[in-house]
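Is glutamine placement plausible here? Inputs below.
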Amino acid sequence: MPVKSAVLGYPRVGINRAQKKATEAYWAGKISEQELQTASQAVRKSRWEAIKAAGVDIIPSGDFTLYDGLLDHSFNFNVVPERFTKQGLSPIDTYFAMGRGRQDRAKGIDVAANEMGKFFDSNYHIVKVDHAPNTEFKLVRNQWLEEYKEAKDLGIETRPVLFGPITYLALVRASRDAPSDFQPLDLIDKLVPIYVEVLKSLKEAGAQYVQLDEPILVTDKAEAYGDIYKKVYAELATAEIPITLTTAYGRVGKSLDYLKDLPIASLHLDLNREPEQLDAALDALKPSGKGIELGLISGRNIWKNDLAASKKLAEKAVAALGADKVVVSTSSSLLHTPLSLKVETKLTPEQVAWLAFADEKCEEVATLAAALNGEENEAFKKNTKDIAARREFETTSDSAVRDRVQAITPEMSKRKSDFSVRSKVQAEAIKLPKFPTTTIGSFPQTKEIRVARAKFGKGELTKEQYEKAMEDEIKSVVDIQERLDLDLLVHGEPERNDMVQYFGELLNGFIFTQLGWVQSYGSRYVRPPIVVSDISRPAPMTVRWSSYAQSVSKKPMKGMLTGPVTILNWSFPRADVSKEIQAKQLALALRDEVVDLANAGISAIQVDEPAIREGLPLRKEDWDAYLNWAVESFRLSTSGVEDKTQIHSHFCYSDFDDIFPHIQALDADVISIEASKADLKLLDTFKAYGYKNDIGPGVYDIHSPRVPSEQEIKDKLTAFVKVIPAERLVVNPDCGLKTRAWKETEESLTNLVNAAKWARENL
Ligand code: GLN
Ligand code: ZN
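Reply from A.M.:
I modeled the complex. Tokens:
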């Protein structure tokens, strides 16, 4: 039997973003549920056909979703919290409400979504439904059987995909009302029979195998899961359908000791990120005659795979286990990659030849399997040529940038004086009142702003006209802030399409796709820039806008930049150079911008790092290495200025427990953090840690249009000063205001300013 090829999962977006459009049209009431289902069916068909056309042997089914795959499991298992069931919604609307909440005042419906959480270290977000000790499971919808049959009717044999039961329970949420020692994994005995039921139904329908995704196995905590895995998989084996257990996003480490003994047909490993785990796995799997599925083609990056190198690794597996025990596959689902390169008309042929999106990755697994089976076909030869050309390109470097990174000294990452000294110099220079008020940077991105940008993009506005439109907007935003009597102003960021793309477009070293959409959550897609070469700043990027803003106000202005770690984490990084080096190149470019802003008379500069925490490696033993360069990069970008410049940073989260020393080490003069959890417990931990610098715990949640009352904000500030010294507190919303409308923005900020004024007198 020859080596086979497989793909673990595929983007849900559909050709021309058909799925996103249909879903949003349904939400807007423009199409019926039936029309949405018809559109979705067409998307599923196109996915299977694309994978099949690429020549892949093992095609996934059941990985399609209207919102999120983990949510689908909860919904199918009938885990629907009461606040949703009591709204009287149809099943599909209940499902969507669980993902995105639902508010319909006229009908008296007001229900908040389930919590969203980041999926491993990717930018994809899962919906985490509440589970409690009394949660019961019931298979109310067998989506996997439905999709298996749907594909079969189209003449396509597939491998159904489910989250493994342990990963499922490890990812969902424990209800707030549950006893504190309860964890969803306690429910495993109740859940496993549902899985057995699904697996049996698939076997009966003719499925030859099933894929159970257990990425939780690449985390530290899974090392203690040996007993539970053995017990659960023994039960699943009673369904008598061969199971491929997949891991992704990292290494299984010590868990291999028990994985090798599970009654599964084969084990999938992420060999793209962690090729070193192959040898141990082959030794471990050999005695039991299990198969291995080699996750060689990255599901996370967009680079063409070096098939000759992958073939060498795969040959080791073939030699050890025999060809019939080896499948070549993707390292994870392809959901993290854009759909297809074919639609990219603006990339040069040279650039196209560097890259592989989902469709091209499907071709890669098929080509690799063919090569292992003795057929080094044209596609394989072209790959070898393309890789050689990319390697050639990768040797071209910007020596000025490389030299500059080489020449970084420790002094460059240190401010001139300590915070205690700086803060006095800044108080003198900027003259902010106690409880200073400020915002996080962006103001509402109105339709007019987006229209102007689109027109400029199409050439319907000249550069002068566009810049004038932006200046008018900035002037108006500054006027409004003056009228509201905010203390530290911002220009409002109207010129930015996105906080990462905007900088990528102004820096050397990035390329952009036109349709490279990647799912972030639900129907939300982002289009990450791609780092292809050394990064440098050909010219100042934001100085003209911040200077203009300062020129129309006497109040101090805060400049606004996206930090090096966040730009990198929200882009596709290059694979030939370490992330550390890329972050430092970015840091040096931003450092020049920070210095230019300061020289232009901008008194405070905020360098946003909302993604520092999400870039944390999955294994704790890898944290220090990451945090060291991440923190150094931030410091490098912000330490080129005199003491009098106040450096701010902003984080879109409030979960700092494990990384306090590193947050302190950033040494920003002011940090602002998210509100929803910026409760006293959080501030207590800041106090307990002994955090020294200034801090602006968001006083209200900007993610909802709700206007916080003045009293609410006063209450927050009253509570805050009990834990954080009043002179260290800054008063701000918890994130940028770009997604809000002006009405609620003005009302909220009015209350915020009044509360701060009250605090100055009373706290
Ligand atoms: N300065 C950015 C803004 O205000 C920060 C956005 C973010 O933290 N995600 O929009
Ligand atoms: Zn934020």
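Short version: The mean pLDDT is 95.
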